[in-house]
Amino acid sequence: MAIRYRCVNCNIVLSGEGASRHYLANPTHKLEKLPPPPKPVKSPTR
Fold it and tell me: Where are the domains of the chain?
């Protein structure tokens, strides 16, 4: 599962690769690691 980061400065959520690219482009921005999303409860799709 992809690790997700949030940019504190831009308030956007990025995946691992996008986050590293974003950080390289904006070295002064703060990225915080987001906890993994809770597992969705399997419900029958109809």
Answer: 4-33
